[in-house]
Design goal:
The chain is an alpha+beta fold. Helices cover 26% and strands 24% of the residues.
C-alpha cells in the first residue's frame, strides 16, 4: 500500500470520507490530459483553416488609350468580352475571324474593387490568387505593383495584407500584347525558331497555348485575359 492509499484509508476510518483510488485518479488525470490535447488540436485547426473568397464578379475592361469601360466576364478573354458588348462581329461566323486579328496587337486593362471588411483584415495573412493569366500581365493593387505574369499555364499569387486598406481597394490587371512581348523575347533569344503556321514568328518563345496562333482544326485567335478564376485566400499567420 502506498502513502496515497494509506491516507485515503485513514480518512475513511476517522471521518467516513470516501476518497478515489489511485487508479481512478490516474484515469481522471489521463482523461483530462486527452481532453486538453484534443482542445488544443481543435484550436490549432481553427486557426490554421483557410478561407477562400471568390473574385470572379464585378470586373470591367477597356482598351489601353481609350476612355470607355465595359463589363467583363471572369474567367474569360478579351475577345469574348468584346463580342459580348457588341464591339466586334461574331468571329465564329463566316470570315469574321479576319476582322478581329487586330486585338492581339493591343494592350488591355481589367479592374474591379475589393472591399476589405473587418473580418477580412483580421486574417493573419491575405493572398491574392490568380489561377490563370493569359499571358503577359502586370497586377496592381491600389496602384502598387504586385508582380508580373508571363505564363498562362501556372497559378500566380501575391501577399496583399499590408496593402489592403479598410473599405474599397482597386485591383487592376494590365495585359500587354502577346505579339509585341513575343517579339522582345525572340530578339533577346537571337535565333528564329520554326514557327510553322504562325506568321508573326513569336509563338515558340511564349508560354501560351500554341493552337491560338492557328492550327489545322481552328483559325488564329491570340487571346488575352483572366482565363481562370481569381480569389482571396486568408488564414492565420503560422510560423
Amino acid at each position: 500500500m502506498n502513502a496515497l492509499q494509506a491516507a485515503g484509508h485513514r480518512l475513511q476510518a476517522e471521518f467516513g470520507v470516501a476518497t478515489p483510488s489511485a487508479t481512478s485518479q490516474r484515469r481522471r488525470v489521463a482523461q483530462r490530459s486527452l481532453w486538453l490535447a484534443a482542445f488544443g488540436l481543435w484550436q490549432f485547426a481553427a486557426l490554421a483553416q483557410e478561407s477562400h473568397i471568390p473574385l470572379n464578379d464585378g470586373w470591367q475592361f477597356q482598351q489601353v488609350g481609350k476612355e470607355q469601360w465595359y463589363t467583363a466576364e471572369v474567367p474569360g478573354v478579351v475577345q469574348t468580352d468584346l463580342l459580348r458588348n457588341g464591339l466586334i462581329p461574331d468571329f465564329y461566323k463566316g470570315s469574321n475571324i479576319d476582322s478581329v486579328q487586330w486585338i492581339e496587337n493591343e494592350d488591355w486593362i481589367y479592374k474591379r474593387t475589393i472591399v476589405a471588411t473587418g473580418s477580412l483584415l483580421k486574417h493573419g495573412h491575405v493572398d491574392l490568387v490568380f489561377k490563370g493569366l493569359d499571358t503577359f500581365a502586370e497586377v496592381y493593387l491600389n496602384d502598387s505593383l504586385l508582380g508580373k505574369a508571363d505564363n498562362m499555364f501556372r497559378t500566380w499569387e501575391w501577399p496583399i495584407k499590408d496593402l489592403l486598406k479598410p473599405g474599397a481597394n482597386e485591383l487592376k490587371v494590365i495585359f500587354r500584347s502577346p505579339i509585341k512581348e513575343g517579339v522582345k523575347l525572340r530578339d533577346a533569344y537571337g535565333i528564329q525558331l520554326p514557327h510553322d503556321n504562325d506568321p508573326s514568328g513569336v509563338s515558340p518563345y511564349i508560354r501560351k497555348a500554341a493552337y491560338q496562333f492557328g492550327w489545322d482544326f481552328c483559325p488564329r485567335l491570340v487571346t488575352s485575359g483572366i482565363w481562370q478564376g481569381v480569389e482571396l485566400r486568408g488564414g492565420a499567420q503560422l510560423g
